[in-house]
Amino acid sequence: MRNALDQGGGIVRLAPNWVPRSFCVPGRRIKLHPDDYYALGGERGGIDERWFSSTTPAENGPLTGKHEGLSKIVFEDGGSTQLVILRDAVAELGAELIGGRLWDEFQAWPMYSKFFDNKFALPHHIHHRDEHAALTGQRGKPEAYYFPPQANNYGAEFPFTFFGFAPGTTPDQVRECLVNFTKGDNKITNLSQAYRLEVGTGWDVPPGILHAPGSLCTYEPQTASDVFAMYQSLAQDTVVPEALLWKDTPADRMGDIDWLMEIIDWEPNIDPLFRENHFMRPLPVHPVEEMEAAGYLDKWICYRSAAYSAKELTVLPGRSAVIHDAAAYGMIMMQGHGTMGAWNIETPSMIRFGQLTHDEYFVSEAAAREGVRITNPSASDPIVMLKHFGPRNPDLKLEA
Ligand SMILES: [Zn+2]
Fold first, then answer.
1. How far is the CA of 288 from the centre of ligand 1 (A)?
2. Are 27 and 117 in contact (CB under 8 A)?
C-alpha cells in the first residue's frame, strides 16, 4: 500500500467500480461497452452506477458480490498489476492518505461519489437523519447532485426532480398517502412539485427531505451510508415493494405510520424558497480572470453541505497549472488527457466491464496541500475533472 502511494507521488490510481441495481434501468451514459450493461447477469439488474473513492460496500441483497461497491487501488509490482481495496489502504495508511483532520475524527474515508445513470425517475424517497439512522446502527445520509454536460448527451425519460411537498401541504395529507401505500398508486407526488433539471448545475439534499431524482446522469457526492425509505408506491408504472417503505425501520416501529412521519423534517420539505435554498449553480473558486491567466478554471459545484464538497476543475488547452487543495480528494476525468503529477490522465470514450483505466485517482492530503501539477498537451481540448472532498473542506467557506 505504501508502495502504491510512493509510486504515484502521493496519488493513487483507482479501478472502475461498477454497481448494478435491480430496481433501475441503465441510461447508458457512463461509457460502458453497450454489451456490458448487463455483464453481471439479468438477475442482478443492469449497471447504472459507477462509484468513486468508495470505502462503502453496496447493499444489493443476497447476490451482492464480495467487493461490490468498494473502490480498488491499482499499482505495479515487479511487472505485474495488483489491486488493493481502498478501504484497507485507508485503514493501513490512515492520516498519510486522508490527512490527520479526517483520520482523527472518522478513522475512515467518510464519503463517496458516484455516477447515477437511471433511464427513469426514482420513487419519492427519503434518507434518515443521524438520530433516526442511529436506531438501526447507521449514519444519516445527505447527498448532492451535479449534472455533468459530458455525461448528459440526452436527458432520458424524465429529467425533472420532485422535492419535498408544495407549500400548504398538511401532514395529514402525507399521512393518508402512506396509509394508502399498499392500495395501488398512493399519489404522493401529487402533493409535491418537480423542477426541470439543468445540465451544468446541481442540488443539495439534506437528510429528512423527500426527493424523486429525475433521469439526468448525475454525479452524486454523499455520506458513506445506504439508509433510505421509499414513500411512493408506484413510479412510472413500476410497483415499489412495501419492504422498501419500511427499510431501515427499527423492529419495534414496524408498521407504525408515525415513525414514517417522524423521519420527515417537515419545515424544509414545505419551504416556499426551496429552490433558492437548495439549487446550486457553479461558483468560481477564485476570480475567473486570475484563474484563466494561470491556465485553469476551478469551480465549486457542491458547496452547501458540511458533509462533503465537490469541484469541477478545467485546465485550459496547452496550459500547465499547479492546483492546491487543503484536503484529500478523489477525482474522475470527464474530458481531455494529459498528466497529473506522476500519472497519465485520460478520458476513455468506452470501457469494457473489468477493464482498467487512467481516469480515476485519489489524492492524499499531503499531495493536495503541496500542489498537483496538471499539464494539458492538447492544443484544442480542455482537461475537465470532477473532484470530491470529505467533510468540512477547509477551503470551503459555508454561508451561515
Ligand atoms: Zn436519495
1. 33
2. yes
Q: 128 C-alpha to center of ligand 1: Å?
A: 10
Rounded to whole angstroms, the Cα distance separating 31 from 347 reads: 10
Task: Compute, in angstroms, the gap from residue 143 CA to the centroid of ligand 1.
Answer: 7
In the reported structure, the alpha carbon of residue 229 is separated from the centroid of ligand 1 by a whole-number distance in angstroms of 9
Mean pLDDT by 10 residues, the chain (400 residues): 92 97 91 96 91 92 88 93 96 97 97 97 97 96 98 97 98 98 97 98 98 98 93 93 95 98 98 98 97 98 97 98 98 98 98 98 98 98 98 83
Of 172, 66, 144, give the one whose Cα is nearest residue 302. Answer: 144
* Ligand 1 centroid to residue 45 C-alpha, Å: 19
Instruction: Give phi and psi for 29, each to the nearest 5.
Output: -120, 10
Q: Cα torsion for 59, 62, 65, 67, to the nearest 10°?
A: 50
Ligand 1 centre distance from Cα of residue 51 (Å): 15
CA–centroid distance, 215 to ligand 1, in Å, is 13
Listed residue (294, 307, 289) closest to 127, CA to CA: 307
Q: What pLDDT sits at residue 400?
A: 44
Measured in residues, the chain has a length of 400
Q: How far is the CA of 216 from the centre of ligand 1 (A)?
A: 14
